[in-house]
Automatic annotation (TrEMBL), chain A:
One of its GO terms (molecular function) is lipid-linked peptidoglycan transporter activity. Pfam families: FTSW_RODA_SPOVE (PF01098). It is found in: Membrane. It is a multi-pass membrane protein. Keywords: Cell shape, Membrane, Transmembrane, Transmembrane helix. Residues 440-460 are annotated as: Disordered. This is FtsW/RodA/SpoVE family cell cycle protein. GO terms for cellular component: cell division site; plasma membrane. InterPro entries: FtsW/RodA (IPR001182). One of its GO terms (biological process) is cell division. It comes from the Bacteria. The chain crosses the membrane at residues 23-40, 52-70, 82-99, 114-131, 140-161, 181-196, 217-235, 241-257, 262-280, 339-360, 381-408, 414-433.
From TrEMBL, chain B:
The keyword Cytoplasm does not apply. Residues 102-152 form the FHA domain. It comes from the Bacteria. Keywords: Phosphoprotein. It comes from Streptomyces piniterrae. This is FHA domain-containing protein.
Length: 460, 175
């Protein structure tokens, strides 16, 4: 460490816990939705809405309790995930409340959503408190496979909503979207499975035209998952869950084996499967048709895709302002859940929508960063899997609403109305925070080695 | 509510949203924990030198040499002024030679900490003798220190540019 020139030194420093940074960001993340809430009230009724104090206190209380629990039980966790999740959830509540102001869009959903958010944060806290070490999940590799399959298959036996069978209806309690929870559980299974099998999948292969071709028997798992996701597509007619399920497996397979060939295989298989199913499944055909011909008149109006595009166009770059858009004209299905991005895009414009998407990007980045920093292979794969599932979901929804890919029935994490979605995504962030706490915790001081003493120079 | 207020709030909301994004990115930037990269420059020289001497514990005669004026031996024609790592994980690292002993090894208090499976924790040291000639001495390492191709058994003067090989690391003295 002597004086030197022309170079840099790399040394380790103790990782700070950064809880105070998190607190500052959380305050920020609570104030922005409150500001938005007041803004909506001023625009709609020319007065500050009456519920603003309750809303601010509620969101602030949730964030505050979450922060205290993180400070106590996960002191080295990532400082950004909680604030970003809080901000997205808070903005989602504001947008749902704003859409509640339009009588044409159905009954009020915001109070329910606030309740579901509270349950979500409660589950998040329970995970942080009771899941001391994420490696515990590794023991349940095959149990989680079974649970995930049951959750994925269960909706087949319940009536479909809007053409997609993704719901379990419990009489008296409401309905549940099991796919949202299945994505977390299936990530646990994939992480545990690939951790054990990745050497066989990565090394036993032949090189052909620059690609590593896996052996036939190693293709087994990917073919099974592919067949399963196709069956979801056929029987539940839900393109989103199918894409999420298969995409997650390909992403984790790629991360575990570092073989580009898996991506190539995955893309070929999913493209082939989608085309094959699209030729005989009418629901999928309708979606693809609407995607290719958005401006076609159907039943006296344009398609939902076109309505969303009109919203974006009406918003322009800086938006119409919160509460000043024409979301009441969106008369398709689910303006508060699947299509909430259309309102976001109209009222805060391209600039705001890009900001929201960047927040999703930052959350995913923190997840991938956690995977990089994690010291155990299971934690690495699980963090990649969870952030990958989150990223795929954001892509599928945002891509569907903006017309990039055919629309599928999925919810924008945290932003959209939907109890299962918000609870499952808080749980997902909870597990990621647990992994990042383990990853960023300073390593224990190494035990003094007796061998090192032997080789020391004895000075006179 | 006037149109102006609403316009200000609309743009204000976008501003705070983006401010949040920018602050979050700043947090990420300052959060690259684990390693700290410091530009070694003239400004840091003063602060680091006492530490180097403390840890290296130079031989007594060299201490005297330093006390009597370190400039003397460095001004000799053909004397090396810096030590350069030319192979191994630390390739490109240079250490200025200013009369201090340079210790090499895997031990954390070495002047050059070698990250090399073939290096001992205290592997070798390089120091100037009374005449300012730089000497390399193997400190009883397991796998040996090589000057060119020969394994060192005694403290040996280092010719300018001769490779000193420790495991996968090669260092040499340059002007």
């Amino acid at each position: 460490m002597s004086s030197t020139t022309n170079t840099t030194t790399v040394g380790t420093i103790g990782a700070p816990s950064r809880r105070n940074t998190e607190l500052a960001m959380l305050v920020f993340a609570v104030l922005i939705p409150v500001f938005a809430y007041i803004n909506v009230g001023l625009a709609k009724d020319h007065s500050v809405p009456a519920g603003v104090l309750g809303y601010a206190l509620g969101l602030g209380l949730l964030a505050g309790v979450a922060h205290l629990v993180v400070r106590k039980w996960a002191p080295y966790a990532d400082p950004l995930m909680l604030p970003i999740a809080t901000l997205l959830n808070g903005m989602g509540l504001v947008f749902i409340w704003r859409l509640d102001q339009e009588p044409s869009l159905g009954s009020a959903m915001a109070p329910n959503q606030l309740m579901w958010s509270t349950f979500g944060v409660a589950l998040f806290l329970a995970i942080l408190i009771f899941l001391k070490d994420h490696r515990v999940l590794q023991r349940y590799t095959y149990i989680s496979m079974v649970v995930a399959l049951v959750l994925l298959i269960a909706p087949v036996f319940f009536p479909g909503v809007n053409g997609a069978k993704i719901w379990i209806t419990i009489p008296g309690l409401g309905s549940l979207q099991p796919g949202e929870f299945a994505k977390i559980i299936i990530a646990v299974f994939f992480a545990g499975y690939l951790m054990v099998k990745r050497d066989a999948l990565a090394l036993a292969s032949r090189r052909f035209m620059g690609l590593y071709l896996p052996r036939g028997r190693d293709l087994g798992p990917i073919l099974v998952i592919w067949a399963l996701s196709l069956m979801i597509l056929v029987f539940e007619t839900d393109l989103g869950t199918s894409l999420l399920f298969f995409g997650l497996f390909v992403v984790m397979l790629y991360v575990a084996t570092e073989r580009t060939s898996w991506i190539v295989f995955g893309l070929l298989l999913s493209a082939g499967g989608a085309v094959a199913v699209g030729t005989f499944e009418s629901h999928v055909q309708t979606r693809v048709h609407n995607w290719l011909n958005p401006l076609e008149l159907q039943g006296g109006g344009v398609t939902e895709t076109a309505q969303a595009m009109y919203s974006f166009g009406s918003g322009g770059i800086f938006g119409s302002g919160l509460g000043q858009g024409y979301s009441r004209l969106i008369l398709g299905i689910a303006p508060k859940s699947d299509y909430i991005l259309a309102t976001v895009g109209e009222e805060i414009g391209l600039a705001g929508l890009m900001g929201i998407l960047l927040l999703y990007g930052l959350l995913i980045e923190r997840g991938i960063r956690t995977a990089l920093a994690a010291r155990d292979p299971f934690g690495k794969l699980l963090a990649v899997g969870l952030s990958g599932a989150f990223a795929l979901q954001v892509f599928v929804v945002a891509g569907g609403v903006t017309g990039l890919i055919p629309l599928t029935g999925m919810t924008m994490p945290f932003l959209a109305q939907g109890g299962s979605s918000v609870i499952a995504n808080w749980a997902l962030v909870g597990i990621l925070l647990r992994i990042s706490d383990t990853a960023r915790r300073p390593a224990p001081a190494p035990a003094p080695s007796t061998d090192a003493e032997m080789t020391q120079v004895v000075r006179p | 509510m006037s149109e102006l207020t609403l316009t200000v709030m609309r743009l204000g909301f976008l501003a705070v949203l983006w401010l949040f994004v920018i602050v979050a990115v700043q947090v990420i930037r300052s959060d690259l924990f684990g390693t700290r990269v410091t530009q070694r420059g003239a400004a840091r020289r003063g602060g680091q030198e006492p530490r180097a001497q403390r840890q290296a514990a130079p031989p007594p005669q060299q201490q005297r040499r330093q006390d009597s004026g370190r400039g003397g031996n460095r001004q000799r024609r053909g004397a090396p002024t810096k030590l350069v790592v030319s192979e191994g994980t630390l390739t490109g690292t240079t250490v200025a030679l200013q009369g201090q002993t340079i210790s090499l090894g895997r031990a954390h208090d070495s002047t050059i900490v070698l990250d090399d499976d073939y290096a001992s924790s205290r592997h070798a040291r390089i120091y100037p003798d009374r005449d300012g000639q730089w000497i390399v001495e193997d400190l009883g390492s397991t796998n040996g220190t090589y000057l060119d191709r020969t394994r060192l058994t005694t403290p040996t003067p280092i010719p300018l540019g001769a490779p000193i090989r420790i495991g996968k690391t090669v260092i040499e003295l340059r002007k």
